[in-house]
Specification:
The protein contains 14 helices and 17 strands. Strand 13 and strand 14 form a beta hairpin. It starts with a helix and ends in a 10-residue tail after the last helix. The protein binds 4'-deoxy-4'-aminopyridoxal-5'-phosphate.
């Protein structure tokens, strides 16, 4: 109790997840979190996508424990260490080579936003241009450069007026399925009177995580790549949330066949929740001067050890991708069933792999109520989207099938309860005004 008071009164108001999930958590394993009182919660948020391999994955923890017990280096700046060498070798042998990918690896500061800053800065240096295209509903981080590329004004409001050299363009489907937004972007790039400075780069998420689980179709990505290549514009894929297996393959863009010039990775890369980021750079674009993009915390060696273990354990064969895909099919079928049951509320299913969303466009307020009701049931479930109208599903990729099913049962209960509460409230308001409202709990 004393602790809660301290957190409520001493911790800055900026805190966020603790408001949506008001428990004091204490232990975690796999897809489960326990609070101080011992109550268990299934975790469909997975550290905002940073715990794809689950909490305290036993093999990864065992490897880290062994490393620490043998006085392994924890902080290595960007010096050469055995842990870093083993990570680079594993990344090269297990991830890059089998995919015929040739990239240099930069270690920026440890958070995702650091990687995005480095990527944007490098693209400007390579091309000698400043403007960068980012997309509606994109999210790239909270430091000035990455923030400028983040669509939602809630985060940018103290920077309104600061463009940061970013121009926003419509993402795939932004104007609905019938408008080809690549044609729109092409026109801006090719008309010297459009007002758009030829960009250094285009930065995008192939599946927008915070912006509402919006999926870019493969042909759209291919057309974007072709447009970039025609005009010498670098293509940056921010795979911080959608990468590391979240959509099935290790990289979210593999399915489309595109080859980005720069890729940012973070979140689940360290496999255990420790901060670690990398920027993958096509070798010809590695034009950094030594130390030009510095940072104290670029050598989180314990994270390197954990990351290496995860690469070996999960990515040495295609078995993990098959498991993710089969769980994703199950998730999709359950979400389709929910959407069908509430079709009168215009609920749509979005996503790829184990990154999914239920979007409730006509009743955006329902999404938060569903998240709150799910928490009551014992499930951590986040919302996202420009109106917070999408219930977001990011279970750990290692989740057991029965846990996934149990979590989805809780989602169904939470959905029904939230809909009932809203329709009761709407009907009592109608009683007061004498109107008769449609009963939205009719499912
Ligand atoms: N890019 C994407 C796609 C993200 O989802 C996030 C985090 N939600 C970031 C960048 C920023 O990462 P971080 O919070 O570690 O700075």
């Amino acid at each position: 109790m004393g602790e809660t008071l301290t957190m409520d009164t001493r911790e800055s108001k900026v805190r966020s997840y603790s408001r949506a999930f008001p428990a004091v958590f204490h232990k975690a394993l796999g897809a489960t979190l326990w609070d101080e009182s011992g109550r268990a919660y299934l975790d469909f948020l997975a550290g905002a996508g940073s715990l794809n391999y689950g909490h305290n994955n036993p093999r990864i923890i065992a490897r880290m424990t062994e490393y620490i017990q043998n006085q392994g280096i924890i902080q290595g700046l960007d010096m050469m260490t055995r842990a870093k060498r083993e990570f680079i070798e594993a990344f090269d042998h297990i991830i890059l080579k089998p995919r015929q990918m040739n990239y240099k690896i930069q270690f920026p500061g440890p958070t995702g936003t650091n990687a995005v800053e480095a990527a944007i800065k490098l693209a400007r240096k390579v091309t000698g241009r400043f403007n960068v295209i980012a997309f509606t509903n994109g999210y790239h981080g909270m430091t000035a450069g990455a923030l400028a590329a983040t669509g939602n004004v809630y985060h940018r409001r103290d920077y309104v007026g600061y463009s940061g050299g970013i121009t926003f363009m419509p993402f795939d489907g932004y104007f609905g399925p019938d408008v080809n937004t690549i044609a729109y972007i092409r026109r801006f790039i090719e008309d010297s009177s459009s007002g758009l400075d030829t960009p250094a780069a285009v930065i995008l998420e192939t599946v927008q995580g915070e912006g509402g689980v919006n999926v870019a179709a493969a042909p759209w990505l291919q057309a974007l790549q072709a447009l970039c290549q025609e005009h010498g514009i670098l293509l940056i894929v921010d795979d911080i949330q959608a990468g590391c297996g979240r959509t099935g393959e290790f990289f979210s863009f593999s399915e489309s066949g595109i080859e980005p010039d720069i890729v940012t990775l973070s979140k689940s890369l360290s496999a255990c929740g420790l901060p670690m980021s990398i920027v993958l750079i096509k070798p010809g674009y590695d034009v950094w001067e030594p130390g030009e993009h510095n940072g104290t915390f670029r050598g989180n060696n314990l994270a390197f050890v954990a990351a290496t273990e995860a690469l070996k354990q999960y990515w040495s064969s295609t078995a993990f991708t098959s498991q993710i895909e089969s769980k994703a099919r199950f998730l999709r079928s359950r979400l389709d069933a929910i959407a069908g049951r509430y079709s009168h509320l215009n609920v749509a299913v979005r996503g790829r792999g184990l990154m999914a969303g239920l979007s409730i466009d006509d009743h955006p307020e329902l999404a938060r109520s569903i998240s709150a009701a799910a928490f009551h049931e014992g499930l951590i479930l986040e919302t996202c989207g420009n109106q917070d109208h999408v219930v977001k599903f990011l279970p750990p990729l290692i989740i057991e099938s029965d846990e996934l099913a149990r979590g989805l049962d809780m989602v169904e209960t939470a959905f029904a309860k939230a809909v009932k509460t809203h329709s009761d409230a709407a009907n009592s308001a109608a009683d007061l005004t004498g109107d008769t409202l449609h009963d939205c709990s009719q499912a």
